[in-house]
Amino acid sequence: MLTAPGEAALKPSNFAWRLMRDRLLSEEQARNAHREGLERRQPFVRYLVEEAQLDSGHAALAAADEFGGPLTEPGCRRSCRPPSEPGR
Fold first, then answer.
1. Among 83, 61, 62, which Cα is nearest to 72's?
2. In whole angstroms, what is the distance from residue 6 CA to residue 18 CA?
């Protein structure tokens, strides 16, 4: 993955890599969202969701799985786990 001069690099530790690995985003979409988000001073995922490039539910599942946190639904009194990790 080459980076043009002046373009911020997508590091393998970035959440963008997780979304690309899960095939929720293409590399081009990730690069564009990263660049546009920086220009707008918006977090990466917020930009993607607001621009309808990523479903918020898919983003939440990927984040919970990647970072090990539970999913909670607003107004819900119980935590939900991603389907890939039942009972963890």
1. 61
2. 24
